[in-house]
Amino acid sequence: MGFHPATFQLTGFPGLEAVRHWISIPFCVVYITAIVGNCTVLCIIWADRRLHQPMYLLLCMLSVNDVGMSLSTLPTVLSIFCFEVTDVAFDACLAQMFFIHSFSFTESGILLAMSFDRFVAICDPLRYAAILTNPRIVRIGLALVIRSTSMLLPFPFLIKRLPICKGNVLSHAYCLHPDIMRLACANTTVNNIYGLFTILITYCLDSVFIILSYVKILRTVFNTASHEQHLTALNTCVSHICAILLFYIPIIAVSVMHRFGGNAPRLVQILMSYAYLFIPPVLNPIVYSMKTKEIRKGISRMFSRDLT
Question: Where is this gene product found (predicted)?
Fold first, then answer.
């Protein structure tokens, strides 16, 4: 067990401390939008029993995960920008690190499950109800949570074994494994290898299966359907494709920035790291509300009840 500082010091936007309270306004808007939007989707699906189907149960899982992602970053981000509290206890930082990475890994798995749902619905529609039953969807969700938590469980222990002696200032307003690891003054090969292993098993493997699913979907659609049926089938995938892009594009951009963007302005690097965690929870419910007819109807019914 190495030496650990009692606290870490988190960083907001260096050089903009004087306008920290103004910066807190867009963050508050982002959190409110993410939490209210995802909770609205959950309430609509919960209230309408006709939506208790695999596609919408998976959407519920995505919304719950997005709320969890928002709540995992909220305490430290708002503490910095609203109350100017930058210190976070060592163990609290490790806990936040665990939850942030766990929710991110789980989201990747949910997007994979949603691509499998679209694959079965389009490529084998006659067996859709038999293959994707509601109990099976619940088991898939539990398996995704178990996969993420079991793979992330070693991370806090891998950090705790390292002596942290290169200061205690982190680069973001929340705790991430690579950010904490760079402060260690010992060999971090195990951390690096295991971190790479988890990325390959989650993001890389999931994205490969998602791509293969859509290759098969496109082949099936263009080989067996008319032009109108092409549009109808593909329209059912639009929301999911948008969710995939909203999740993976920021991750790829952050990875490229960390490896090849050393000369990029510090502000750009910080904004990209925020985009990775904040864009999906905010935009996913907006995309599904716009592109899914049943969700739009549910929102209309909700507002019409409020107005009467």
Answer: Cell membrane; Membrane
Tens digits of per-residue pLDDT, 97-126? 999 999 999 999 999 999 999 999 988 888
In which element (H, E) is residue 7 found?
strand 7-9
Beta bridge partners of 8: 88
Give ∠ CA 269-160-272 in degrees, rounded to 5. 10
In a domain? residue 1: no
- From 286, 282, 284, select the one nearest 296 (Cα to Cα): 286
Contact yes or no for 281/70 (Cβ under 8 A): yes
Domain that holds residue 179: 7-307
Give the residue among 249, 255, 218 at the shortest CA–CA distance from 233. Answer: 218
In a domain, 139, yes or no: yes
Number of domains in the chain: 1
Structure tokens at 150: 């079991």
Contact 96, 172 (CB under 8 A): no
Residue 29, token pair as written in the block? 């808007």
Calculate ∠ Cα 10-14-15, nearest 5°: 145
25 in a structural domain: yes
pTM over 0.90: yes
Q: What is the DSSP letter of 9?
A: E
What is the spatial distance between Cα 155 and Cα 105, in angstroms, rounded to a whole number?
13
Residue 177, domain CATH: 1.20.1070.10
In a domain, 2, yes or no: no
